[in-house]
Amino acid sequence: MLVVFDTVNVYYLPQYTPIIDLLKQKGHQVKLACYKNKNKKASFEDVVAKMQLECLWVADDNDALSHYIQLKPDWIIFGNAFRHVDELATNTKTAQIGHGVGPKPSYYHKSAIPKTVRFMEGSLRLETIKNLYPDDQFVQTGFSKLDPIFNQQEKGLDYSELQLDEQKPTILYAPTFNPSSLERFPNNWPEDFSDYNILIKPHTFTYTRARYKKQRDKLNCWARFANTYIASEQDLSLLPFMQNADILLSEASSTLFEFAALDKPVIVCNFFKLKWSYRGPLKYRFENRFGKDNVLYKDIGLHVNSYGQLLTAIPDQLNNPDQYRTNRLRFTEDHIGPTDGKASLRIVKFLEDSISR
Length: 357
Fold this sequence. Notes:
Rossmann fold, seven-stranded parallel β-sheet, 2 domains, six-stranded parallel β-sheet, globular
């Protein structure tokens, strides 16, 4: 069986990797298709090379289509919409796997162009998408990205290599690129938390898009503090950071759902910065894109409205980790799905069974 993973953005790879590893173990042929119009090949070529897979660096979706028609793979796995599905070879099946359990309505609307199947995570998401697209096929498998943690295969970070103190509690700050709280944090905030290790995992777009230069300037300020490690552009996977962290800070990232599934406390930063096209009389655009309650994440954890509130909120949540535990379990069932570490196994079995029929 030949399976191609359509990798529009290279940061999809952590979602794909557990599935790819299992396919390789079972003797199947796997290829990647990475998009040069979305990713700088020079920045990620080494990252892809370490996966020991053939990578097709395609120019755009038209170029990808040409390769797919020539290859005639048994399956193509998409992390996003693909407008050329109807032009593929008739014997090529298509699947969609979300690259994250994001809060935006686009999470659902990417299925407007139907695939053979879409693999879903939590029960609430499955119910919602079935109502939106009642004629399409959706199968609940869970969230493959987290399999290595649930299977206890994720080793985490080497604190001695990073010169961090294993005896200190660890804060993980994982801001998204938009809307982001990143620029609302002071330049010296690691100094306020000198009794903690601080891991910072920005979204890949913070590094790769010119418009986020001010976010990169902030990262450069924080990098000079000894208790802080900032993920590089090539650190695609959040899993090692999640493995080591005791608490997560974020604002509008699906990382909140992922970390809550590990039954660790999360703090939602409500003091994010909106770009000008979402402010004032244009705020309706923000509401339309993110939904009335999507960014707020309801009661998944403690919400703070300013950076200053974190000074007491973080130690309080670490001292009372069970405060939102019932809520985390509910969010996990609704959005992440089974936490048995077998999501990838269920996906691969479906792919194999569909070919053997």
